[in-house]
Amino acid sequence: MSNITNEFVENYIRDILPPSQDLFHKMEVYAVENNVPIVHKEVAALLRVLTMAVDAKRILEVGTAIAYSTLIFCDAMGENGHITTIERNEEMIIEAKKNISIANKESMIRLLPGEADEVLRFLDAQYDMIFLDGAKGQYNEFLNECINLLKPGGLLVSDNILYKGMIAHDDYAVRRKRTIVNRMRNYLDTICSHPMLETSIVPIGDGLAISYKKSRINEE
């Protein structure tokens, strides 16, 4: 139970969605067996829809892990899309490269190793969508660079935004996670009141925030 969505509703949504095929199914099994966090099934479905809805062709991802969501974006963008993805864990990078190779998507993906706050400062492209799925306690550190890299009309999508419900209420919070909880609450306050962003918080998976970048501050 995630404390975010009723368990019966959550299971129903996951059951009604089409089952994952081939490589995606293998990655899901690997993630469970090796305790690797990947996006929930219903979040993956929403990422596909968002990518198609805005016709995203250039995506930036912070937090590659085993490249599960990376390849979700590739499928949704089609052959003309490109994703730049950042990962700091060397073991994850090795596994991600294997999966990217199996999927034959090397030409669509640029995997950059390193700490996201350092890598982001050296990027100069404009992206249609940015997906934040890295260290939860560092989202605030990434925000300004992400806004600068996101084109007007683009989407900033932040995962794990409700963090097992801990963000919403102290009754759910674990003491050793207090720092992360406080930082994530601050991040949510920032993106919900930021003059350049219009933000919606969606209580699916571990919580998802979808922020639209305005073309000007006074845009309604």
From TrEMBL:
InterPro entries: Cation-dep_OMT, SAM-dependent_MTases_sf, SAM_O-MeTrfase, TrmR_methyltr. It comes from the Bacteria. GO terms for molecular function: magnesium ion binding; O-methyltransferase activity; S-adenosylmethionine-dependent methyltransferase activity; tRNA (uridine) methyltransferase activity. GO terms for biological process: tRNA methylation. S-adenosyl-L-methionine binds at V39, S69, E87, E115, A116, D133. The keyword ATP-binding does not apply. Keywords: Magnesium, Metal-binding, Methyltransferase, S-adenosyl-L-methionine, Transferase, tRNA processing. Belongs to the class I-like SAM-binding methyltransferase superfamily. Cation-dependent O-methyltransferase family. Homodimer. Catalyzes the methylation of 5-hydroxyuridine (ho5U) to form 5-methoxyuridine (mo5U) at position 34 in tRNAs. This is tRNA 5-hydroxyuridine methyltransferase.
